[in-house]
Amino acid sequence: MNKILVADEMHESITDLLSEIGYSCDYHPNIDRSGILAIIDQYMGLIIRSKTKVDKELIDRGLELKFVGRAGAGVDNIDVLLLREKSIALYNAPEGNRDALGEHAVGMILSLLHKIHSSDLEIRQRRWRREPNRGFELGCMTVGIFGFGYMGSAFAQKLSGFGCQVIGYDKYKKDFASEHVKEVDFDQFIAKTEILSIHVPLTEETKNLIDRKWLEQFTRLRYLINTARGEVLVLKDLLHMLDQGNIHGAAFDVLENEKFDKYSPDQDQTFDQLSKRNNVLFTPHVGGWTFESYARINKVLVEKINAGNHL
Ligand code: 3PG
User: Fold this and answer.
1) Which ligand 1 atom is nearest residue 254's CA?
2) Which of 82, 130, 226, 264 is 20 to 30 Å from 153 at the Cα level?
3) Do residues 83 and 58 make contact, with C-beta atoms less than 8 angstroms apart?
């Protein structure tokens, strides 16, 4: 049995790449959860993206499952511990989209500092205002990278050349200093960061971690960028800090809730107020989502499956 179920939309290369290493692949980009549950027992491998929850129910039905492949970086939709307990390998492919994400985060910072997105909106209304659109230079700032995995390190590398100070803090990773980043402890991180960029995974520990109390520890914070997971940041608290003028601008590629039709009244109100601010910038979870990364993710994932290089 060498059958693999591909249960989300992926670059078309996935079928050929898997067959080159000896697997036969059923590509079902539109299959829903009940569809997966109904047939998962026929497969030794399952390849998913972020929409599929790989939980106990699904894992228990996958009687022949030997591996799960996550075509992307985040594994917050996967019960990693249960897979490990059952000796089912888990592969992911952050090497495939880290460059896209690093570039995207730099783009967001430049747009905020130089008011590119907001002045563009003004000009469309035939408003030609120079003084209110005077910018700040990235080269004169200290960027703090919170979480120094694949994404944080790619972002640090993309920042080289701008002349800014780049510092990084990671609770679980040490000795990562390089020509692109100075490794600091948390006390230095909160004392020096002016632009905070979030790159931690979503876990029990990081869920809602970044709230008002946490942010108020930073003495020089002016801008915040979230390209990681929306649920690590309490949006309502950030709005409050923007309203108080404690933070000058924020950019979000991810939101606590990315389904507008499923917003609570509270979420609705927060989003409404954020979206009225011209010092706030949004993109729809496309930080790692380029034409190049779409294909590269498959290549990385299949190479790792072939090499047995799992998490
Ligand atoms: C990732 O974790 O790689 C990104 O958040 C994108 O995930 P998705 O495209 O599978 O939703």
Assistant:
1) 5
2) 82
3) no
